[in-house]
Amino acid sequence: MAMLVPAVYAGVLHESHEGRAFLYSAILVLFFFGLIALAISDTGRAPRTVDFLISLFLAFAVLPLVLALPFWWGLATTTYLNAYVEMLSSFTTTGATLFDTPGRLSPPLQLWRGLVGWLGGLLMWIAAAAVFAPLSLGGFEVTTRADPGIDESTQAHVGAAHPMKRWQRGCVALVPIYTGLTAMVWIMLMVLGEEGLTGLMHAMSVMATSGISPVGGLENAKAGAGGEVVLFLFMLFALSRTTFSADTGAVRRESVLKDHEFRLGLVIVVAVPTFLFLRHWVGAYEIDDLQDATSFVRAAWGSVFTVLSFLSTTGFASAEWQAAQNWSGLNTPGLILMGLAIVGGGVATTAGGVKLLRVYVLYLQGLGEIQRLVHPSMVVGQSKASRRIRQKGAQIAWVFFMLFALSLAFVTIALAGFGASFEDALVMAIASLTNTGPLVEVAAETPIDLVSQSSGLKLVLCAAMVLGRLETLAIIALMSTDLWNR
Question: Do 475 and 149 contact (CB within 8 A), yes or no?
Answer without folding.
Answer: no
